Structure to design on (354 residues):
């Protein structure tokens, strides 16, 4: 039986649904470790909530089964696996890279200070990565960074979870197709410094005299940073900069995304893929940085018609705004395929059967 270890996070419910839907033979068990304050409300014969990793029954692993670790940013989980590696073989272990587990520690170590705890955790993480030879990533070239930063060796597989998005609602919004006389620009996805809002606003300042409105989601993350971004955005764009500081329901957020014409993700790492997918489906013009694994994955490998956020400052306004219908339709069809459950099953089968 394949074993999955995942936090009680936003991905958990949809992943359990995927397991129930496409592997009905009960060949997978999902251990969900609880985050404080999170409800234990996922009900399935394939699910077991755990409070300690010692509750995981590794005897369920046969020689051909896999141990899937969904995100390994949790320090206690990494330490448990590293110090108990004899419970599973390196051919069984599959590390699924979520993003924070790859990028966050590297960002902290660039800041002033020794950060001894982070350094120790990185040493332990490196040991686990060296033991693994199968990795799943949301951006395929994140694996290149794992090899570069941690000396990983092995094989990369694409990872996709079923979307939490209400596709029927998106189709309804597309049919309504309401537009404003202003060009609406979505900037970033959260109040995290990796969004690089200040640099992005400096890029966009070239269009400050145009009829635009910048919508900036800052409802979760670092609230001190959110305030800094809000102040700077209002300084450059005045009332045409609208910080979104309150949480929105998924339905309201989808409506917000449909209301914009352009999305700018100046993130310096793989991030905001959920937003990018929804916006692509809604046929919006999308900018991401060409120096990120996001660009390599979507644009260089899969030929998505996205645009380079690093070039915004040198563009004419009409070029910044316009996207032809053929490009928009290509992006939408690409995401339609990414969201197809049969395509998702092929990706997971490829790892489970190798």
């Amino acid at each position: 039986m394949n074993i999955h270890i995942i936090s009680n996070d936003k991905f958990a419910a949809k992943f359990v649904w995927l397991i129930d839907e496409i592997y009905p033979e009960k060949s997978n068990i999902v251990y969900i470790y609880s985050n404080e304050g999170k409800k234990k409300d996922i009900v399935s014969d394939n699910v077991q909530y755990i409070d300690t990793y010692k509750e995981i029954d590794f005897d369920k692993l046969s020689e051909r089964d896999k141990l899937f670790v969904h995100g390994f940013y949790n320090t206690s989980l990494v330490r448990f696996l590293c110090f108990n590696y004899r419970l599973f073989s390196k051919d069984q272990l599959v590390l699924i890279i979520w993003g924070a587990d790859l990028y966050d520690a590297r960002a902290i170590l660039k800041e002033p200070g020794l950060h001894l705890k982070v350094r120790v955790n990185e040493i332990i993480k490196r040991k686990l990565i060296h033991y693994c030879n199968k990795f799943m990533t949301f951006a395929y070239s994140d694996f290149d960074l794992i090899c570069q930063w941690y000396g990983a060796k092995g094989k990369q597989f694409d990872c996709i979870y079923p979307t939490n998005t209400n596709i029927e609602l998106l189709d309804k919004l597309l049919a309504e197709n309401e537009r404003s006389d202003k060009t609406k620009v979505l900037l970033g996805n959260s109040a995290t410094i990796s969004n690089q809002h200040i640099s992005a606003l400096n890029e966009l300042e070239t269009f400050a005299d145009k009829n635009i409105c910048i919508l900036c989601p800052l409802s979760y993350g670092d609230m001190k940073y959110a305030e800094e971004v809000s102040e700077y955005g209002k300084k450059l764009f005045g009332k045409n900069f609208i910080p979104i500081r309150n949480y929105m329901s998924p339905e309201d957020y989808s409506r917000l995304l449909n209301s914009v014409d352009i999305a700018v993700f100046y993130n310096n790492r793989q991030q905001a893929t959920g937003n990018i997918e929804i916006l692509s489906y809604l046929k919006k013009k999308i900018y991401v940085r060409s120096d990120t694994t996001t660009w390599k994955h979507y644009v260089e490998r899969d030929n998505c018609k996205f645009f380079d956020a690093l070039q915004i400052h040198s563009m004419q306004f009409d070029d910044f705004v316009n996207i032809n219908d053929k490009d928009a339709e290509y992006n939408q069809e690409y995401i339609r395929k990414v969201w197809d459950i049969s395509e998702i099953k092929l990706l997971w089968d490829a790892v489970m059967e190798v």
Summary: The first helix runs from residue 12 to 22. The CA atoms of residues 130 and 152 lie 6 Å apart.
